[in-house]
TrEMBL record, chain A:
Membrane topology summary: Multi-pass membrane protein
Pfam families hit by this protein: Sec_GG (PF07549), SecD-TM1 (PF13721), SecD_1st (PF21760), SecD_SecF_C (PF02355), SecDF_P1_head (PF22599)
Native source organism of the sequence: Pokkaliibacter plantistimulans
Protein name (record): Protein translocase subunit SecD
HAMAP family: SecD_B
Stored SUPFAM superfamilies: Multidrug efflux transporter AcrB transmembrane domain
Subunit structure: Forms a complex with SecF. Part of the essential Sec protein translocation apparatus which comprises SecA, SecYEG and auxiliary proteins SecDF-YajC and YidC.
SecD export protein N-terminal TM domain location: 2-106
Purpose: Part of the Sec protein translocase complex. Interacts with the SecYEG preprotein conducting channel. SecDF uses the proton motive force (PMF) to complete protein translocation after the ATP-dependent function of SecA.
Membrane-spanning intervals of the chain: 459-478, 483-503, 509-533, 554-576, 582-606
Annotated localization: Cell membrane
Residues annotated as domain Protein export membrane protein SecD/SecF C-terminal: 441-608
Automatic annotation (TrEMBL), chain B:
Record bears the keyword Transport: yes
Family per record: Belongs to the SecD/SecF family. SecF subfamily.
Subunit structure: Forms a complex with SecD. Part of the essential Sec protein translocation apparatus which comprises SecA, SecYEG and auxiliary proteins SecDF-YajC and YidC.
Organism: Pokkaliibacter plantistimulans
Ranges that cross the membrane: 132-149, 156-177, 183-204, 236-253, 259-285
Pfam families per record: Sec_GG (PF07549), SecD_SecF_C (PF02355)
Full protein name: Protein-export membrane protein SecF
InterPro entries to which the protein is assigned, alphabetical: SecD/SecF_arch_bac, SecD/SecF_bac, SecD/SecF_CS, SecD_SecF_C, SecD_SecF_C_bact, SecF_bac
Protein export membrane protein SecD/SecF C-terminal domain segment(s): 103-286
Length: 629, 305
């Protein structure tokens, strides 16, 4: 029969809407202001006692706590507060009570009820422009990364040629062309060198040439190797940045590679950009030192703790063999017997120094010290008032202490590690402290928390006003059919928010603008359909035929116009960055969801209300309009 | 009411509006060529610091403070009240300028709250600009392909030309009044492409349908009928979209002010252009029923020996 939907269609619509309302629902619960506690070293846990201590410290200052919970993996804990002001005070109290072993950060904790979270539902994430925070785009100096590696090769090649007794006159690193050039006295030596280098360095692209009348080899790095060096430089910087961000005490930081040579760092809730930049730019470093002999004079030694076991100590010489600036790379692997080890590569100067010292120290132990520049809050009494200051300090701890088994050179390995995990942690720390390709901030955006809140309020208010205007207009102009379109519009917004929440997309201010624009455009499909129905009615078509033809005829037009808008939305999404992307996401999703609600849902409602009945007229004409027949 | 409807003779005015469109386009292009766009920070690179003071400020005093800190090129503006101040510093590759500005503003112990800072390196700015331009061209090309596949060459040419017309006029207004053009405005311009196309397609769809229905009518009549048929829909959709964009413009705050403005202009121009650029062009291009007929099915004939 005309204008009747089969039962399964109604059920399908009901199921979709039920699912949508469940997944959109978490957005109705406002977030709690919370203080997040996490251990400052990876692998350590926040236990129940620590959380109790923090709660007690807050309670001692007569500040109410809304709730507290520990994360399932024991890595962090949350204390929920009643207001933003309490949150700020509580953070300072907890930071002071727990000391340096824990990172205390501001966070917003979702208040999604358990039955919703058990279904995997959660609220949309808010972008930095709504939440406040800092966004950095950093660029890694790739040219410098390649240059550094070539310097290392340069010294390795010299050693290789010397060992093979091949006489060369010089090995040059041409900074301009980025090539290594080796000059020889005779062509014979050169040809042997080519064979040798081909065998040992498959990553080189070798060319024989004549330079200044002498036979020479020009060495270029293969494209693949250059890529690898770049990837290494990025990974190294990502690791270092992640470590430093952890130190900043940010609840949900994002450190992510973008494109070939860039890194995005997003720190929600951080306002002091100067401090953030200082910490991000701070250099961790390494020092390689010998363990002191038992008979060494006290003035020439220093005692340090181990990083992984704060109770263990070792006494080292004051003299430094090399620093992290000489370390060109470090990676973990397995030795011949399958035990974990860490491979370390040094630059030429570092290799020389290492060789000179370790030659005479075989059998002794060498330690690697990890040096971090940190800041802590110190409360001091000034004029009778407690003043809090951030004081920078340096923390040095031992990350490796191993026996020197033979004279070391440009590359050596650290063995005797207990586990694969320990090996990769050591390699990570060596990399963090070693010479990294320099990074520069190329873009920075900060939004203060007050502006974030203001943006939310304004965005939501303009959405409400926009929605109200459209709803009233549709009611006046299409009466009952307007009501149907309005119901579809409301469902469309719910559906849009549900989809955003399910794919855990980030909502930004332009994103809100996209939603608002979608509201205006979504009714277009209904307007098209209703205009057609009116036309059919005006042409004296029977009511049921008019409804049927209206939906049928408008469909291709709706499809065409929505697909092209979607096309533009997708282009925006893939081409755009930041604000543009946020807009593109909501616009594109809104177009897709509006096709469902404006066509399927309104049709279902119209069918339910009017389908299969004998009617002479439809309440589709504007208020105060006596027309139609 | 009878089934006979009065057909509005839209196309009667097509020469006049073609002239108006042409003049508007030329003025826009002229302004774009002469003064260009007032590119925002996103595209030029530079630093912007937006702050709120606890008390009203004397702008000259603030300028003095910045000069003392060695930031002579800083531009200081207030917006809304004398407590809300924006400082802009032209393109540098230094991310620390923002911190210097903050330090200078606080140098006399004033109570300042940071609302927003933005730093864009000039290289990144250039990239964003190139990417934006490329996106716009891609959008136009994609749209042209889609319309060409769904309709016919004359339709796709007319649709794309009307989009180009809309984009030029929106850009022209931003250039003429030297309104800041940033990333969000660019997004709005692209959204205008989507919206305006939406409109053109509805109109084109109806023209195509009417060509099939009205077998005896001349093209001008067919187009006029299509315009009249879709007039209600065009007005109402534009109106609802306009309403929500006004809400954004008035209440959305200054971060999306330019965005909303571009949409306001774009929706207006887009609605107009789907009639007087897209449809008029079809007439100028001498669109006919033959253009829309499906290609003759010759296979059937070939089957016979």
């Amino acid at each position: 029969m005309l204008n009747r939907y089969p039962l399964w269609k109604y059920l399908l619509i009901l199921v979709v809407l039920a699912v949508a309302s469940i997944y959109a629902a978490p957005n109705l619960y406002p977030d709690d202001y919370a203080v997040q506690i996490s251990a400052s070293r990876s692998g350590e846990v926040v236990d129940e006692a620590t959380l109790k201590r923090a709660e007690a410290a807050i309670a001692a200052k007569n500040i109410g706590i809304k709730g507290a919970e520990r994360a399932e993996n024991d890595q962090s804990a949350l204390i929920r507060m009643n207001s933003g002001e309490d949150q700020l005070i509580a953070r300072d109290i907890v930071a002071q009570a727990l000391g340096q072993d824990y990172v205390v950060a501001l966070n917003l904790a979702p208040t999604t009820p358990v039955w919703l979270t058990s279904l995997g539902a959660g609220p949309m994430k808010l972008g930095l422009d709504l939440r406040g925070g800092v966004h950095f785009l950093m660029e890694v100096d790739m040219a410098e990364a390649v240059t550094q590696r070539l310097d290392v090769y340069q010294s390795e090649i010299k050693t290789k040629l010397r060992e093979a007794k091949l006489r060369y006159s010089k090995v040059d690193h041409d900074q301009q062309s980025g090539k290594l050039q080796i000059d020889f006295r005779d062509a014979d030596a050169r040809d042997q060198a080519v064979t040798l280098l081909r065998k040992d360095y498959p990553e080189f692209v070798l060319e024989t040439a004549e330079a200044d009348g002498q036979p020479a080899i020009m060495i270029n790095l293969s494209e693949k190797t250059t890529r690898e060096i770049e990837d290494y430089a990025i990974t190294q910087n990502l690791t270092t940045l992640r470590n430093r961000v952890n130190e900043l005490g940010v609840a949900e930081p994002l450190v992510q590679r973008q494109g070939r040579n860039r890194i995005v760092v997003e720190l929600p809730g951080v306002q002091d950009t100067a401090a953030a930049k200082r910490v991000l730019g701070a250099t961790a470093n390494l020092e390689f030192r010998l363990e002191s002999r038992s008979d060494a004079a006290a003035g020439t030694t220093e005692t340090f703790n181990f990083r992984s076991a704060p109770n263990r100590q070792a006494t080292l010489e004051r003299d430094i063999i090399i620093t992290g600036n000489n370390v060109s790379s470090a990676s973990s692997s397995f030795d011949e017997t399958g035990r974990p080890q860490v491979n370390v590569n040094l630059d030429s100067a570092g290799g020389k120094m290492m060789n000179r010292i370790t030659r005479n120290a075989v059998g002794r132990k060498m330690a690697v010290l990890f040096i971090e520049h940190k800041t802590r809050n110190v409360v001091s009494s000034e004029n009778g008032q407690n003043v809090e200051k951030r004081v920078p300090y340096v923390e040095k701890s031992i990350i490796s202490l191993a026996t020197i088994q033979s004279a070391l050179g440009n590359s050596f390995r650290i063995t005797g590690l207990d586990s694969n995990g320990e090996a990769s942690e050591l390699a990570l720390l060596l990399r963090a402290g070693s010479l990294a390709a320099p990074v520069y901030i190329v873009e920075e955006r900060t939004v203060g928390p007050s502006l974030g809140q203001q943006n939310i309020e304004r965005g939501v208010f303009s959405a409400e006003v926009g929605l109200a205007l459209v709803v009233v207009f549709m009611l006046l102009y299409y009466r009952t059919f307007g009501l149907i379109a309005n119901i579809a519009l409301g469902l469309n917004i719910a559906l849009l928010i549900a989809v955003m929440s399910i794919i855990s997309s980030t909502l930004t201010l332009p994103g809100i603008a996209g939603i608002v624009l979608t509201m205006g455009m979504a009714v277009d499909a209904n307007v098209l359909i209703f205009s057609r129905i009116k036309e059919e009615l005006a042409n004296k078509a029977p009511v049921q035929m008019a409804i049927h033809a209206g939906y049928e005829r408008a469909f291709t037009t709706i499809l065409d116009s929505n697909l092209t808008t979607l096309l533009v939305g997708l282009i925006l999404f893939f081409m755009g960055t930041g604000p543009v992307k946020g807009f593109a996401v909501t616009l594109s999703i809104g177009i897709i969801t509006s096709m469902f609600t404006a066509i399927m849902v309104t049709r279902a409602l119209v069918n339910l209300l009017y389908g299969g009945r004998k009617l002479n007229q439809l309440p589709i004409w504007p208020l105060f309009f006596k027309g139609g027949a | 009411m009878a089934a006979v409807k009065r057909i509005i003779d839209f196309m009667k005015l097509r020469h006049m509006f073609a002239a108006i469109s042409l003049v508007a386009t030329l003025i826009s292009l002229g302004s774009l060529a002469v003064q260009g766009l007032q590119f925002g920070l996103d595209f030029t690179g530079g630093t912007l610091v937006e702050v709120q003071f606890a008390q009203d400020q004397n702008l000259d005093k603030v300028r003095g403070q910045l000069e003392q800190a060695g930031l002579e090129s800083a531009v200081v503006q207030s917006y809304g009240t004398l407590r809300d101040i924006v400082v802009r510093v032209a393109s540098t590759e230094q991310a620390k300028v923002g911190d210097q500005v903050m330090a200078a503003l606080q140098s006399d112990g004033a109570d300042v709250t940071l609302k927003r800072t933005e730093f864009v390196g000039s290289q990144v700015g250039g990239e964003l600009r190139d990417q934006g331009g490329l996106g716009m061209l891609l959008a136009l090309a994609g749209v042209m392909l889609y319309v060409a596949a769904r309709f016919q060459f004359k339709f796709s040419f007319a649709a794309v030309l009307s989009l180009v017309h809309d984009v030029i006029i929106v850009l022209g207004v931003f250039s003429l009044f030297q309104i800041e053009f940033d990333l969000t405005v660019l997004a709005a311009v692209l959204a205008v492409i989507g919206y305006s196309l939406n409109d053109s397609i509805v109109v084109a769809d109806r023209i195509r349908e009417n060509f099939r229905k009205m077998r005896k009518a001349v093209p001008v009549e067919v187009v006029n009928t299509a315009m009249t048929d879709t007039l209600g829909r065009t007005t109402i959709t534009s109106l609802t979209t306009w309403l929500v964009v006004w809400a954004l413009f008035l209440f959305g705050g200054d971060m999306i002010h330019g965005f909303a403005l571009a949409l306001l202009i774009g929706i207006g121009v887009g609605t107009y252009s789907s009639v007087y650029v897209c449809a008029s062009l079809l007439i100028y291009l001498k669109v006919s029923r033959e253009d829309l007929l499906p290609p003759a099915k010759e296979e059937l004939v070939d089957d016979r020996p």
